[in-house]
Amino acid sequence: MNHLLSIKDLSKTQLLELLALAKEIKANPQGYSQALAGKSVVMLFEKPSLRTRVSFDIGINKLGGHALYLDQQNGALGKREPVSDFASNISCWADAIVARTFAHKTVELLAEHGSVPVINALSDMYHPCQGLADFLTLAEQFDDVSKVKLAYVGDGNNVTHSLMYGAAILGAKMTVVCPLGHFPDGQVVCETQALAKQHGGELVLTSNIDELGEQDAIYTDTWLSMGDNTPLADIKAKFEPYQVNEALMAKAGANYFMHCLPAYREVEATAAVVDGEGSLILQQAENRMHAQNAVLVTLLG
Fold it and tell me: EC number(s) of the enzyme (predicted)?
């Protein structure tokens, strides 16, 4: 494991080891307080962030390392100077690069031209750190995460892709329900179906919300991804049948609700569900730090 660009690059053993290490770091933070002593991590952010920036910055500090944050005030990646120059220059000083970018190609170029590990903190195609945090959260609720029935309802996006890869590699069953025209990327679907078959999992895709079936947890995300300026009114009628509400949770028999945040109450999910007893949203948010720290320790420790 030289980088973390996508969950699809992990073997089942690597994925399970990361989840186990994240649990250990969470339970015993003092044991890892010097794991990154003397290490510096540069965080390149093209997009705004709350959870990603704070969880990485504080997480690196808790591991005894130093985090340096760079936003677009320093020049957009690839415009002020080539991404290859960003990567090679930062590699002269830093021990790792965390990148939150618009295009996944940018993350790939950083990994290609740099000489230090690169962690994808979000791109248009994947959000592996979120996916790891989500499966860590599920692993804290279920003894065997491969037995979990997870549903994703809403807009197929980078989070959906990472969840699909994770579920497929773990051998779990995942159901993805999206409006027509908003399904996950076709290549991702083909790859995850092959991985699910290989590992004994199952991937179901449908646009019919009535085919949701029995689920342990239902996951949703915003109907409009960050940077999408489409007026909500233009898609509201198409997405309203996919709102996660108490009736949908009850029909599926789902005990848990998940969301990567920010959440818009009474839009993609009702407040009763988002803030309800079975909501795991804050556990997911906290686990971003622990999952990312497991990645950092694996790459640098």
Answer: 2.1.3.3
Give the bridge partners for 239, in sequence order: none
Residues 6+ apart with CB under 8 A from 261: 50, 51, 281, 284, 285
Q: Residue 13, exposed/middle/buried by CB under 10 A (0-12, 13-18, 19+)?
A: exposed
Dist. CA 211–CA 151, nearest whole Å: 11
Q: What residues have CB less than 8 Å from 144, skipping those under 6 apart?
A: none
At 239-292, the pLDDT tens digits run 999 999 999 999 999 999 999 999 999 999 999 999 999 999 999 999 999 999
Per annotation, catalytic residue among 3, 51, 53, 100: 100
pLDDT of residue 231: 87
E strand or H helix that includes residue 133: helix 128-141
Catalytic site residue from 57, 288, 290, 292? 288
Q: Which among 108, 121, 111, 76 has a CA at the least distance from the CA of 90?
A: 111
**pLDDT tens for residues 180-209?**
999 999 999 999 999 999 999 999 999 999
130 is an active site residue: yes
Q: Position 167: which residue type?
A: A
CA pair distance 84, 113, nearest whole angstrom: 5
Give CA separation, 90 vs 35, 87, 104, in Å.
21, 5, 19
Q: Respond yes or no: is residue 129 known to be catalytic.
A: no
What is the C-alpha to C-alpha distance for residues 253 and 274, in angstroms, rounded to an integer? 16
Length of the chain: 301
199 is annotated as an active-site residue: no
